[in-house]
Amino acid sequence: MAQISDRLRARLKKPLGELVPFAEAAKRCRGRRVIAVGDEIVFNFLELGKIPFVSVFDLKTLRKSVAPKIKGKILEFYPNPQRTEKPAGELSVEMFGIAKLFLEKGGALYVEGEEDLFALPFALLVHEEIVIYGQPGQGCVILEKGNFEKKELEKELKEMGLVLSH
């Protein structure tokens, strides 16, 4: 595990990709495999009757427990998600391995700790898939091949000691 650098932390406060309202993101996802990162994003897709190819959640929003309605809906669809632990503010090579497996088989991942940084490994590994994550108070962010600075992110991760093989 590596604590994210101050430079990467500052960068992640801004959307990595295109910031749009959820309704716009849902339209743009039609016919594509969706990787939904974050409880509210997963919940919103499920409410529309669209099950993401990959759902990543921690049953928290802004480090507080999600509303019972959100928790109930997520656990209704995913009563036995795969589980992993990930401390807040940390990245690891293992996260990339987990992301790679989920991109192959799909499914649900419950993260004990904090799930938000899982958007990075998925974004760096996607081919035709689309990653959607929440930007609190602003909407959601669409990450797809070609709409964010992949090489720059990989360089920052390497500087943190995370050498990745795709």
What portion of residues belong to β-strands? 25-35%
**Average pLDDT reading:** 89
Count of DSSP helices?
Answer: 7
Q: Please list the strands of the largest sheet in the order they lie side by side.
A: 2-11-10-3-4-9-7
Describe the model.
With 166 residues, the protein is an alpha/beta fold. It has one domain. Strands 2-11-10-3-4-9-7 form a 7-stranded mixed sheet, sandwiched between helices. Strands 1-8 form a two-stranded antiparallel sheet. Strands 5-6 form a two-stranded antiparallel ribbon. β3, α3 and β4 form a beta-alpha-beta unit. α3 packs across α4. It is globular and about 40 Å long. It starts with a strand and ends in a 7-residue tail after the last helix. The mean pLDDT is 89.
What's the gist of this structure?
By secondary structure, the chain is α/β, with parallel strands linked by helices. The protein has one domain.
Topology:
Layout (H helix, E strand, L loop, with lengths): L1 E2 L2 H7 L5 E3 L1 H7 L5 E4 L1 H9 L6 E4 L2 E2 L2 E2 L2 H10 L4 E5 L3 E2 L1 H13 L1 E7 L5 H7 L4 E6 L3 E5 L6 H10 L7
Parallel strand pairs: 3-4, 3-10, 4-9, 7-9
Antiparallel strand pairs: 1-8, 2-11, 5-6, 10-11
Helix pairs in contact: 3-4
List keywords for this structure.
about 170 residues; alpha/beta; seven-stranded mixed beta sheet; two-stranded antiparallel ribbon; globular
